[in-house]
Amino acid sequence: MNGKEILNRRLDMQLTQEQLAERVGVSTFTILRWEKGYSKPSALAARRLREVIRGRDEPEG
């Protein structure tokens, strides 16, 4: 998932960067960096991001 996709999904879910960051377990600055394409999510963060986007707030385990 690239930065533009992350941004579009977040907006579709009507979440702020802060709200998405809280759900994924990262900082707001990290969400900003992903959306701008300055960095990419780690494997673990990408997994959590997919879970949140699918509507699951609890990590698999």
Automatic annotation (TrEMBL):
GO terms for molecular function: DNA binding. Residues 6-52 form the HTH cro/C1-type domain. CDD domains: HTH_XRE. InterPro entries: Cro/C1-type_HTH, Lambda_DNA-bd_dom_sf. This is Putative DNA binding, helix-turn-helix domain containing protein. It comes from viral metagenome.
